[in-house]
Amino acid sequence: MTETTAPEAPMPEASEPTARSRVLHRAGRAWFGIALWKRILAALVLGAAVGIAWGEGATSIGWIGELFVRLIRMLVVPLVFLTIASGVAALADPKRLGSIGVKTLGMYVLTTALAVTTGLVVATLIAPGLGASFADAVPRAVAPPKDTARMFMEIVPDNPIGAMASGQTLSVIFFAVLVGAGVIAAGEGAEPVRRLLAGGSEVMLKIVGFVMETAPFGVFALIAVVMGTSGPASFLAVLKLGLCVVVGSAFVTLVIHGGIVVRLLAWLPPLPFFRGIADAIMVGFSTSSSSATLPVAIRVAERNLGVSPPVASTVLPLGATIGMDGAAMYVAMLTLFAAQAFGVQLSLADYLVIAATTTIVAMGVAPVPSGSLFVLAAVLAAIGITPEQTAIVVGFILPFDRILDMIRTVPNVTSDLSIATAVARWEGEMDVGAYNSRDDV
Q1: What is the dihedral sign for C-alpha 196, 197, 198, 204?
Q2: Is the pTM of this model over 0.90?
């Protein structure tokens, strides 16, 4: 009798990789099918909840946020150099560079002055300094502000490579403009250099795209650490000042940048603008740094707003350095906060001095977290606040400043992008169809 052998049952292990890969594939499609700004916003909300629940323990995931910020900062200097140099070279006409530069600087002065005025008005109405107690404040000395003449002198670098290595953005911008202008002057002989710069700029923007896919995880960690260490409860000590910052930032962002710059000056609807820059707003809010947001701002300006690379690469790096509307508004508010807390009576002339001084010094604010506090001494000294009193104010604010800094960084970001949009519109360097397509998002 012949023994029959039953067919072997299929090995389950053979089908497992296929099933697992299908699940991963579907999960990946679902994840990347969600708009990046929505993923970042969800991470922001979830991170805040986790931070509040976890408390100080949230610091254990702080390395994730730090890694994300380092990835972004890694891109800033090469991106600034390559995009500006290639953008200037692409203009082909030095006169157009002058036209863009004059319009850009004029717009930054205008929006900064309006932001300062907003800060003064809001702080006068809400009066955050009345009743403020500095009993528990630990004085923090603030370095004297850098001499203005020296600041302008140092824009010209002794060593361009050294300037890049130390992250001196204005010096890098200056050298990049010279390189781009040199390419224009050299004509056809410099065509390989022009192509190299353009290709390098494209490569950097692709890398920005890669890095931005890590943004939800970085934002989650950054917000969790902030809420876990500072928390909403500690914010109550500066609640009135916080209210000033929220109201002022909303007004500057929506009315000045969205209503005046985008709607009235660029003749464009504001809603596609705010939809198109959502990624940059989220990154600016979570990192509290205009400089760290620059790679994302350039990417959204070109891809979502239809701003041409020559304009985006010229306006935005300059704006990340001098376009500090949120910082200007905040310094004006802190000045009135200090005057109200110390009982200093201000005349109309004092208000004008505050407005003029703040507009000037705000353009020298470092685009890093709490950079506003380092120029505060110059404005307070203009109305008679002593260095000792300034140290007390800074010591009072500093423990809560990270949360306030996150809020006021948003107007810094929207300032840069609204001005880039307006300048591109005036120069005929904008794809209006691409801009308006954000209405369908």
Answers
A1: positive
A2: no
